[in-house]
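Inputs:
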Amino acid sequence: MHRKKLQNNKYTPIEDPKPLYQQVKSHVLQHIQNGDWEIHGRIPSEHELVATLSMSRMTIHRALRELTQEGILKRVQGLGTFVAAPKQMATTLSLPNIEEYVTSRGNRYSCTVQFHQTDPVTPEDALKLGLKEGADIYRSYLIHKENNLPIMLEDRYTLPDRVPDYINQDFTKILVDSFFAARCPFINHDHQLSVQMSTQEIHHFMELDHPTPCLHLYQRTWSGDKLLSAAKFLYPGGHFALSC
Amino acid sequence: MHRKKLQNNKYTPIEDPKPLYQQVKSHVLQHIQNGDWEIHGRIPSEHELVATLSMSRMTIHRALRELTQEGILKRVQGLGTFVAAPKQMATTLSLPNIEEYVTSRGNRYSCTVQFHQTDPVTPEDALKLGLKEGADIYRSYLIHKENNLPIMLEDRYTLPDRVPDYINQDFTKILVDSFFAARCPFINHDHQLSVQMSTQEIHHFMELDHPTPCLHLYQRTWSGDKLLSAAKFLYPGGHFALSC
DNA sequence: TAGTGGTCTAGACCACCCG
DNA sequence: GGGTGGTCTAGACCACTAG
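Outputs:
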C-alpha cells in the first residue's frame, strides 16, 4: 500500500478510545434512541455512511452486521437497512447455578449426598430416556443447602457412556454441571418447569413439616445431540431472582 | 487492484454453496467435536490457518471472531486462540408468549379483560415502582384462556409516560408485549419467579374450586432504562415446556 | 440499470505477551 | 524482537431488488 494512504488511515487508537466500528454502532443506536430513525424505518445505506463518517465500507459493514446479529437492525439485500422491531416474543429467564445463587446472597453453600450409585434402568426411565431396560445408569440424589438448611433437592440420572468416571466424583465439592462442562464440548440443556405439592419424600429430605408448593425443574443435559444426563430439581416454596 | 489478483480471488459462490468464513467456522467446530482440538487447548493461529486454508486473514479472522462471540473460542491478544470450556453456569429458560404457547398445542387462544382503567398509585406500589403516591397509573387485569378455560392471570401496572395510548388498546386483540414492542425501542425485562398457593381471588377468576399451587412470575418491562410496566403472571398448577 | 447489502483480498498499523 | 490477535482501508466481485 502507498505511503499516502497510510497517512490517511483512520485507525488512530491513541486519540480514539473506542474502535471505529464501535463508534458507528453507538452512532446508530443513538439515532434510534433519539427517535431520529423510527422502528421499521430505513437508515442510511452503507455507501452513505461511508461518505458521512469518512470510513471504509468494511468498517461500516461490520458495525451494521453486528447490530443485525444483535437484533437491532434488519438488512435486506437490494433494499436497505431498517430498524428492527424488538421481537421479545419469548421471555427468556436466566437461572443462576445454585452455588452462585447462595453465595451471592452472602450465605454459605453446601451439599450432602444421599445416594450416588449404579442402578439398573427401570421400565419407565427406559421409556423416558430412550434407553434399554436393565442397563446400568448412575443415580445421584443430592441435597443443596444454604447455611446448612436444605433449599433444593436434585435427583439425577446420568448415562455412563460419555462420562464413565462420573461415579467417582465427589459432588459435595463440585457441581455436576461444572463436571460436565469441564470435559464435554457443546453442552446444552432442555427444560420443563412445573409446580407441585411436596410429597412425603420431600418432607423428609428437605426437613419440611407441612405441605408446601414446590418449583419443579426437569432438566436434560446434552453434548451435541448425545444425552448425558437428566435431573429433577425441586425448590420448596422458593423465590428466585432471574435476569433478562 | 491488479487483474492477476482478481483471478486468484477465492470468492467463487457458484461452486461453494457456503461463504468461506462459514466453511472456516464449520472446519473449526468439526475439529473440536472430533476431539482433535481439546477444551482449553490452543488451535492454529490466524497466520497458520491463512496458509493452511489459502484464504485471506480477514476471512479467517471473521470466522474466529464470530466463534468467539458465540462462546466457542477464547482469544487472547499476544497469546493465541483456545477452545473455550462451555460455561453453562447459568441455566437460561425461554418461556414462549402465552398465545404462541396455546396455539402451538393446537388449541384456541382467547383473552378476557376484567379491568382496564386508570388508578391512583397506592403507597405500596409507589414504593415498589419508584413512583410518587397518588399519580395516575394504568391497571389491566386480564384472564388468558385456552379453549375458553382460564390458564393464566395477568395483573399489570403501566406507566402512562411513554405509552399514553395504552389505555385505548383492546388487549383481547393483541398481547401487551406486542403493543410495547411495536412502539418502544430497546425493550428488556427482569423477572422474579416464585410459587404460591391460590387465593380466593385466584379461585374466582381462574374458576378453581380447591387450593392449587401456582407458578408466579413477576415481570418488569423497560425501554432502555425507563420503566414501562410491571406485571404479575399467575399460572395455576401449570406445566411449561421451555427451550435451551 | 442503478443501488443495495454480502463477501473476499492484500496489505497495513497497532497493542499485547512472551522468552 | 517475533508471534499473536484487533483493527482499518481500498478495491473488487457477486446477488438481490426495484423502477
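Remarks. Residues 1-16 of chain A have pLDDT under 50 and may be disordered. The longest strand of chain A covers residues 109-120.
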